[in-house]
């Protein structure tokens, strides 16, 4: 029981009421100087004393008497609440110092990510029209929608990145992670944190899974309206753990509702470009069913990161009695393997070598804590192929793997780039 509790505590990845923490480890590709979605970071690092907006779409209930920077409870809300959280990265550092902290390979950094405040926006007058197969623009006068549009207009890229959190988390922790991701995207476009109603407690796992199911329609509605309401060119989705089935099921529902559109047409309509499913806490066969229903056709590409060393999902498998997608390495049935082999738009990545290299006890939060995996996610977002990201795959296998000499290969690629 002691081990079980320790696993659950560590798997949550959440420090209650802690308003700041050190900046995440630098993705390995950035540390060696390879191109990354964040570019050279010089512009992003000019704002060490500024407050960075993270747009919030929350399915949690509001607690008016709560004395906390987090105004939300842990129950469901029938309609999503909109807001803007403000985060500071690197306060007290010069732009040059923040840039050095951003690109350094040192694990312990001086730069901190700090939650400052959240401002709630007026509710949408009518969220029921947030539906699929509707081209009418209704919310362009809403302050939240206008703020997203303004952020996009000020950026060189009209891209929206959406972070979908996992189990046992709260607004503050999720906002800090979203801000770190946004920092390593060079503050380009707009960042949204989709706050589905986690119970935010150790023993809330079963309730959280039910809340995630409930939140699928909220997420689907958001995706269905971002492109038309905010004039978005592209959408990137990064989902972790229990947040992954929300994304998969929402895209699956969109594809089924838009069955009369071709894959190109549905992508043009919803503008979803890249989807990352990191350590997905999802039934493996349910994922295969979603593939059959062509959920991936709503997106340009999908990357699934899994590891048999993920102890948190190992516990989930024991609770559910079936394989989880985030531990699917070496567990695919021949027919499941054939299904995935026929869908080149889905990239399956075995992160276990990366997890082992960084000696992560639980092996569940590697998407932003492990420099190899975060580096690969950056390359995926840039549009590089798995081979172009230095991953390897044996003939007849479904999963791409990190080679043991992954870091050396990155350095060699950097040297080769400089020569040309």
What does this structure look like?
The chain is of the alpha/beta class. The protein folds into two domains: 41-140 and 169-205, no CATH class; 233-420, no CATH class. Helix content is 38%, strand content 20%. The chain has 16 helices and eleven strands. It has helices at 2-12, 28-32, 95-103, 143-153, 171-183, 205-214, 216-230, 244-257, 263-270, 284-292, 311-320, 334-341, 352-357, 366-369, 371-382, 406-419; strands spanning 20-22, 52-62, 72-89, 112-120, 159-164, 190-195, 234-240, 272-278, 299-306, 346-350, 399-401. Strands 1-4-3-2-6-5-7-8-9-10-11 form an eleven-stranded mixed sheet, with helices on both faces. Helix 7 crosses helix 8 (244-257). The longest helix is centred in the middle third of the chain and has 15 residues, at 216-230. It is globular. The N and C termini lie far apart (57 Å). The model is unreliable at 1-15 (pLDDT under 50).
Give a brief rundown of this model:
This protein has about 425 residues and is α/β, with parallel strands linked by helices. It is built from 16 helices and 11 strands. The chain folds into 2 domains: about 40-140 and about 170-205, no CATH class; about 235-420, no CATH class.
Q: How do the strands and helices of this protein lay out in sequence?
A:
Layout: H1 2-12, E1 20-22, H2 28-32, E2 52-62, E3 72-89, H3 95-103, E4 112-120, H4 143-153, E5 159-164, H5 171-183, E6 190-195, H6 205-214, H7 216-230, E7 234-240, H8 244-257, H9 263-270, E8 272-278, H10 284-292, E9 299-306, H11 311-320, H12 334-341, E10 346-350, H13 352-357, H14 366-369, H15 371-382, E11 399-401, H16 406-419
Parallel strand pairs: 2-6, 5-6, 5-7, 7-8, 8-9, 9-10, 10-11
Antiparallel strand pairs: 1-4, 2-3, 3-4
């Amino acid at each position: 029981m002691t081990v079980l509790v320790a696993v659950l505590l560590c798997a949550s990845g959440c420090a209650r009421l802690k308003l700041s923490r050190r900046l995440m480890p630098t993705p390995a590709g950035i540390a060696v100087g390879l191109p990354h979605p964040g570019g050279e970071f010089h512009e992003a690092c000019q704002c060490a004393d500024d407050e960075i907006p993270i747009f919030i779409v929350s399915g949690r209930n509001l607690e008016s008497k709560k004395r906390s920077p987090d105004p939300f409870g842990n129950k469901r809300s029938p309609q999503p609440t909109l807001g803007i959280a403000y985060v500071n990265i690197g306060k007290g550092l010069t732009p040059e110092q923040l840039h050095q902290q951003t690109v350094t390979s040192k694990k312990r950094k001086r730069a901190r990510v700090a939650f400052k405040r959240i401002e709630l926006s007026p509710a949408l007058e009518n969220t029921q029209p947030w539906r699929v197969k509707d081209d009418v623009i209704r919310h362009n006068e809403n302050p939240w929608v206008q703020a997203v549009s303004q952020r996009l207009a000020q950026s060189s890229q009209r891209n929206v990145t959406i972070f979908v959190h996992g189990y046992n988390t709260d607004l503050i922790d999720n906002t800090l992670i979203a801000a770190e991701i946004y920092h390593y995207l060079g503050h380009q476009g707009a960042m949204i944190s989709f706050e589905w109603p986690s119970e935010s407690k150790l023993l809330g796992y079963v309730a959280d899974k039910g809340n995630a199911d409930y939140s699928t329609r909220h997420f689907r509605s958001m995706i269905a309206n971002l492109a038309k309401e905010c004039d978005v060119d592209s959408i990137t989705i990064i989902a972790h753990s229990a947040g992954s089935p929300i994304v998969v099921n929402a895209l699956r529902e969109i594809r089924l509702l838009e069955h009369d559109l071709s894959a190109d047409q549905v992508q043009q309509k919803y503008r979803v470009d890249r989807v990352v499913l990191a350590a997905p806490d999802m039934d493996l066969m349910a994922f295969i069913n979603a593939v059959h229903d062509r959920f991936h056709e709503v997106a340009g590409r999908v990357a699934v990161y899994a590891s048999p060393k993920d102890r948190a999902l190992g516990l989930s498998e024991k609770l559910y009695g079936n394989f989880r997608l985030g531990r699917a390495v070496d567990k695919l049935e021949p027919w499941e393997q054939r299904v995935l082999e026929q869908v080149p738009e889905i990239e399956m990545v075995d992160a276990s070598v990366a997890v082992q290299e960084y000696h992560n006890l639980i092996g569940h939060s590697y998407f932003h804590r492990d420099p190899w995996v975060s580096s690969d996610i950056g390359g995926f977002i840039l549009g590089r192929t798995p081979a172009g990201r230095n991953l390897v795959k044996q003939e007849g296998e479904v999963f791409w793997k990190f080679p043991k000499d992954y870091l050396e290969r990155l350095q060699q690629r950097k040297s080769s780039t400089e020569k040309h």
